[in-house]
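Hi R.,

As promised, here are both runs. First protein below:
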Amino acid sequence: NSIIIAQAGLDFSPVLVQVPGAGSSDLSTNDFGSGDGGFTVSPPVTPETDWTYTPGSWRSNGQESGFGESNVSYLTSPPYTLTRSGIFTLTFSHRFSFEVGFDGGVVEYNINGGAYKRVPASAFTLNGYNVSLGVDAVAPLINQQAFGSNSPGHPAFITSTCRAGVGNAGDVVTVRFM
């Protein structure tokens, strides 16, 4: 099972944008083709599950040897400072293939170092969460909506867009993929 955020030779880097009123402005300039974008991995779980960067992409393969154990790993963006108050959106291209009913992926954000908040399914305007996981899911995703099973058209990439949150000018935002 894997999630790929970007692929070599293609521009699939996540873009964080502010959308106040009639205008918008990019906050991120990630280009995974020329580096890891400043993203970090935490907490380390196992070499099988941890997000890994290779030129052009970030990937988490899941784990087979730890079957039945939580293997949650986070890919966290560098901090972005909001230049004005308003909604900030996140657009990213990815593909996924998770064990049906047990595993999934979600997007979270924090403002000014506070607790991470899950981006709700209702915030997606394009290709949002596609499953509701039950009580057999990994602990952080029990009874949660998530990306699960296979992405539409897998192994092709899809683009997802969400209204990630609302902040004030000067707030510092980070986004993470679980």
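And here is the second one, sequence first, then its structure tokens:
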Amino acid sequence: MSFDLTGKVALVTGASQGLGARFAETLAASGVAVAVAARQVAKLEDLAERIRGAGGSAHAVAMDVTDPASVAAAIEDAEAALGSLDILVNNAGIAVQKPFLEMSPEDYDQVLDTNLKGCFLVAQAAARRMKESGGGSIINISSVLGTEVIGALSTYCASKGGLLQLNRAMALELSRYGIRVNAIAPGYIETPINSDFFKTEPGQKMVKTIPQRRLGQPDDLDGALLLLASDQGAYMTGSLITVDGGFVLR
């Protein structure tokens, strides 16, 4: 099955590196004009230039997902440059790794503000635009830790679990406007941020707990992303697609 999204416009948050950059490049390769958003604008400009060099269309916008004014300005900038928004990939997220008893209120606020409130703010602003233009697709990037737990990531688990319920609630309310809302839950995906850890002995032990006995690669998420972004996923809303090599089956 091929996914031709020519003429569509997407916004990808947290696009300065890792999975966000991959999502942007994957959408652009399928014909989408992509606005890439994050706080690190220099990295975004490099990504946008790389996409344009490969024949795609891209525009970099500065966005702090925790700031409503920044979100509104970024979406206005993206639409002025590329056109009405059809697709949102809510990818921005952070983690603070500490034992539960050492987690501070500031740690909690930082993670929940970015991973949950930030997704709410961006989705709400994008959905208001999509409602006026006749619909669209919102794709929230959750995690297998939205339903499973591991130690020292209590706030991250809480934020991703909350995002799954927010995903369902948004899907219920926004369907009437032609807006589909779905989520992807990646398992352990190798990126530049974590690749060194997974080469260590603890990292290798963690990999051995995955039923497929391997880490996921960023391109393992391409199919789920394109399905949810395209008309092939037109009858899907409120869904969660888990891409984890069987991690949740352990």
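A quick note on the second one: The chain has a mean pLDDT of 96. Let me know what you think.

Best,
J.
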